[in-house]
Amino acid sequence: MKRSVISLLTPFALLISCNSHETHNSMPKSPALPPPPFEAPTNPETTEIDNFSEKDLLVGGYAPADIDDESAIKAKEMVIDAIYKKFPTRALVDKVEMQVQVVAGLNYKFRIEMSGPQATRDVFSGVVYRNLKDRFELTSLNQIQGK
Questions:
Q1: Signal: present as a keyword of the record (predicted)?
Q2: Which domains occur in the chain, in start order?
Q3: Residue 40: which residues within 8 A CB-CB, separation 6 or more?
Q4: Are 83 and 90 in contact (CB under 8 A)?
């Protein structure tokens, strides 16, 4: 009986010893390589937004955004409506700049210039927050130049 148990266990012992044996290479393991450095585009014809994609967004930082995006249009309209309500004016919107910030949702930051002489032109800044449930809220509106 002892002999049959030993003969049955011998192949298992050999398998275990083979699996536990580690091979050692003479080459040390190399650490993970850092990502390549950022290189600015060399073509002056392309704009900043042309070279930017959603994968380039960084949490906490503002970045260029597509102002023709459906959500951006909705946010822009909220800011413009708030300007006309809080700062009644007959001037029209002349120029709109927008950036986006990734938070627990998105912040759309606008710089809006109204029409009129450059020296007395009204300029506003506004931020609209879009939460993860796709609800929009105007979080700030300030006049940064003008009356």
A1: yes
A2: 52-145 (3.10.450.10)
A3: none
A4: no
